[in-house]
Amino acid sequence: MDFVSGLRCRECGRGYPAEALHVCDFCFGPLEVTYDYEKIASVVTRERIEAGPRSIWRYADLLPVHDAAPVDLGAGFTPLVRADRLASELGLGELWIKDDTANPTGSFKDRVVSVALTKARQLGFKVAACASTGNLANSVAAHAARAGMDSIVLIPHDLERAKVTMTAVYGGTLVAVEGSYDDVNRLCAELTSEQPDWAFVNVNVRTYYAEGSKTLAFEVAEQLGWQAPDHVVVPIGSGSQLTKVAKGFRELWQVGLLDEEPSVRVSGAQAEGCSPVATAFAEGTDAIRPVKPNTIAKSLAIGNPADGWYALDAIRSSGGSCASVTDAEVLDGIGLLARTEGIFAETAGGVTIATLAKLAAQGAIRADERVVAMVTGHGLKTAEALTGVVGPTATIAPTLESFGDALGDQLNTIRSQRSS
Ligand SMILES: *Cc1c(COP(=O)(O)O)cnc(C)c1O
Ligand SMILES: [Zn+2]
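Above: the input record for the complex with zinc ion. Below: its predicted structure, written as C-alpha cells.
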C-alpha cells in the first residue's frame, strides 16, 4: 500500500484519481501527486528508513508507488562529499557535493525513471517511451531492459555520441529526430494521444516521474544527520528537479523526520545559451520567454521548460538566486571540480559548479552557510566537450632522456611543492 491520496491540479486545485493523467481537464494545469501525510507520519521513522535498501527505495513511504520488486538498477543513495578544497577556492565555508554521477546510468535521471516505470508497470503499461536530451534516454532504455519492457526513445539527432551509444546498447527503439529537444517533446505530446498504450515517462506519467527527484533532498538530509542544508544549488532543464528538491525538504519536516523546520535557500543554475528561468529571475518578471537553445550543456537545453515557472517560484519564495554561465565557464567548472575534488562531471555539472562560483563571488551564497551543490551527470557522457581542452601533459619517446627533456621543469616544481 502506498500513501497516495490522489492527484491534484497545481493551478486550480481540482482532484483526480492516481492514474496515468498529467494535465487538468478544466484548466490544462499540470497535476501533482498528493499524499496522506498524517498516515505517513504515523508509520515513517528514521530507523525504518535507515533499515531500508541503499537506494531511492528506502524512501518508498514518500514516493507515489509501492512495489515489493520495483523497476530498480540501484538508483540513488549516491555519495555526499565534503568539498573543502573547492570551498576554499571559492571562499566558501561548509560545502558538499551531491555526487549523482554515481547512479547506474551515470545521471540523476535514474531516480525519476525508476519511480516512473515502477508506476507505469503497475498501471499495466508494457512500453516505456520518452523524449530526451540524452540522460533520460540512457535511463529509460536501461530500466526498460531491466523490467523486460519495450522502450521507444526519441532524441534530438545532434546529441553527444556517448549518450547515443548508451541508449542504443540496451536494445530498445531509438529514434533520432532532426530538430531541437522542444521539437522532439512536441512530437511526443502528439504521439501520446496516438499511442495511449505507451508510458511516456515525461508526458503521461510525468506526475509520478517528477516525484523521484525528491529523493535528492531526502538523501542530502539523511546524509547530513537528518538536517537540511542552508542553501542548495540545482541545475535547471525543465525545472522539475529544482521544484521537487524544494518539496522534498518540506515533506521531511511535514512527516516529522527533521528536528528543526528547514529553511533551505534554493538557487538555480543554467547555461547562458539556454537560460529562460535565469533571465526571468534577473528581470524580475513572472513570464518565462521560450528560447532557442545553443549550449554545450545539452542535458539542460530545454528552451520552453515545462516547470520553469514553478522553479522560479521555488527560488524566489525560498530566498534563493538564479544565474547563468557561458560555455567557457562550464568547461572551467568541470575542470575546477575535477582538479579540487576528483569528481568528473558532465556539462550540466559544470553549469552547477560555475554557477556556484558566480553566486559565491556575488555574495548570494555566503561562507556562513552549509551549501550543497547537485552534480547530476557523469563526465564521460560529454567527454567530447573537453576535446582540445585537456590532454596529455607531453607525448614522448620511451626513453629517460625524452622524459627528462619534456618534463624536467615540471618535475622540479612538483619536487619543491613536496618539500615545502
Ligand atoms: C535532466 C537533467 C537535469 C535537469 O533536470 P530537470 O528536471 O529537467 O530540470 C540536470 N542535470 C542532468 C544531468 C540532467 O540529465
Ligand atoms: Zn486545473
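Notes for the reader.
The CA atoms of residues 230 and 264 lie 5 Å apart.
The mean pLDDT is 96.
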